[in-house]
Design goal:
Blueprint: E1 12-16, H1 20-26, H2 31-51, E2 56-63, H3 71-94, E3 97-102, H4 110-123, E4 129-137, H5 139-152, H6 162-166, E5 179-182, E6 201-204, H7 214-225
Parallel strand pairs: 1-2, 1-5, 2-4, 3-4, 5-6
Bound molecules: farnesyl diphosphate.
């Protein structure tokens, strides 16, 4: 367990990007316009993370519950993801961004799953920023899948620890988030990284995701720097 310390820059920032639909509705536009603008905010968040020397950025791009949305919206989001990957990958790679995908990518179909895998392979040795995209991701499902993998690997009940259990999660090898940001004023974790967020600081903002910019990212980091992280310990 870490000591009670204040680290000025979080190593890992996770974001629940929320409010695309409300942004579009407020402008009398279809929801897809909000998602499109949200994809632009993704680029700004990546730039901000790189500029602030954040090492890991995890974005909740599609939850396991999002499959319940109308087929047309699921198609729009899948199209945007594909388009984003194709149009941004070369630049992300050139900027030293490593891409990792967590979640049930195979639910998007074999072709996209393979494209995502190819992007992971291409960027595997990049060191500047690890961009983790949570796609068809649910925290509870991840924990159940991890338990199944541990059992399949022959781990005995009394051998299982918090440390080795983490190796069976999608996020094996990735440090836990230090800071969780959620936009749009909602104050929930919504089945995101349930295991990994145990000691994360949380920062909520009313800003809708499509409006999220570098200044908002900097505000979140400033607030984070003022907090004392205790990890359950007493203050030093
Ligand atoms: C939440 O807004 C956002 C999503 C369900 C999807 C997030 C997708 C993007 C930011 C765009 C594409 C992403 C990538 C990585 C290219 P909401 O639709 O729930 O908004 P609402 O709560 O206002 O209705």
């Amino acid at each position: 367990m870490a000591d009670a310390v204040s680290h000025s820059v979080p190593s890992h920032v996770a974001i629940i990007m929320d409010g695309n639909g409300r942004w579009a509705a407020a402008k009398g536009l279809p929801r897809v316009a909000g998602h499109r603008e949200g994809a632009k905010a993704v680029r700004r968040a990546i730039e901000a993370a790189v500029n602030h020397n954040v090492r890991y950025l995890t974005l909740f791009a599609f939850s396991s519950e999002n499959w319940q949305r109308p087929v047309s919206e699921v198609q729009d989001l899948t199209f945007l993801l594909k388009h984003y990957l194709r149009s941004e990958l070369a630049e992300l790679h050139a900027e030293g961004v490593q891409l990792k995908v967590i979640g049930e990518r195979e639910r998007f179909g074999e072709a996209l799953a393979q494209e995502l895998e190819a992007a992971e392979r291409l960027t595997a040795n990049n060191k500047r920023l690890t961009l983790v995209l949570a796609l068809s991701y649910g925290g509870r499902a991840e924990i159940v899948a991890a338990v199944r993998r541990a059992i399949a690997a022959g781990v005995k009940p009394d051998e299982l620890t918090e440390q080795n259990f983490a190796n069976f999660l999608f996020t094996a090898g990735i440090p836990e988030p230090d800071l969780l940001i959620r936009t749009s004023g909602e104050q929930r974790v919504s089945n995101f990284l349930l295991w990994q967020l145990a000691y994360a600081e949380i920062w909520f903002t009313k800003v809708l995701w499509p409006d999220f910019c570098g200044r908002d990212f900097a505000d979140a980091l400033e607030d984070y720097a003022s907090r004392e992280r205790r990890f359950g310990a007493r203050p030093v």
